[in-house]
Design the sequence.
């Protein structure tokens, strides 16, 4: 019986003795603030500039999106080069391959985010619903 208890104790100690290291994280801090518009249904629109495009673009703040995207018409309008890719996205319209705009900067008020890859989508239907040209953030 003693041997059984000793074995259980040693087994327990060996399993619990190797804990994960707890790394301290820096405290959160405010980086910037910027205004947004809220449409019906809770859709939030953030204004931002893309690279050196002089116009401000409207981005839907989509917390469920796995990436950031540009409207294909906007890419055409501002001569933004688009690169074909084998990457697929899944959305309400199904699964399909999307082109990309690689390694670009998004400028929000008081915050620039470099090295972003934007997939390119046709948002004409979305833009017609809200009456503004929209992208997804």
Sequence:
């Amino acid at each position: 019986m003693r041997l059984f208890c000793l074995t259980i104790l040693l087994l327990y100690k060996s399993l619990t003795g190797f804990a994960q290291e707890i790394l301290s994280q820096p405290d959160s801090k405010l980086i910037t603030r910027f205004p947004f518009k809220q449409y019906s249904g809770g859709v939030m629109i953030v204004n931002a500039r893309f690279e050196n495009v002089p116009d401000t673009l409207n981005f839907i703040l989509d917390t469920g999106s796995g990436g950031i995207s540009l409207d294909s018409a906007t890419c055409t309008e501002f001569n933004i080069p688009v690169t074909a890719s084998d990457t697929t996205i899944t959305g309400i319209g199904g699964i399909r391959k999307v082109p990309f705009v690689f390694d670009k900067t998004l400028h929000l008020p008081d915050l620039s985010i470099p090295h972003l890859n934007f997939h390119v989508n046709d948002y004409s239907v979305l833009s017609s619903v809200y009456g503004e040209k929209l992208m997804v953030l």
User: Anything to note?
Assistant: The helical segments are 2-16, 72-77, 124-130. Residues 29 and 111 are 14 Å apart (CA to CA).
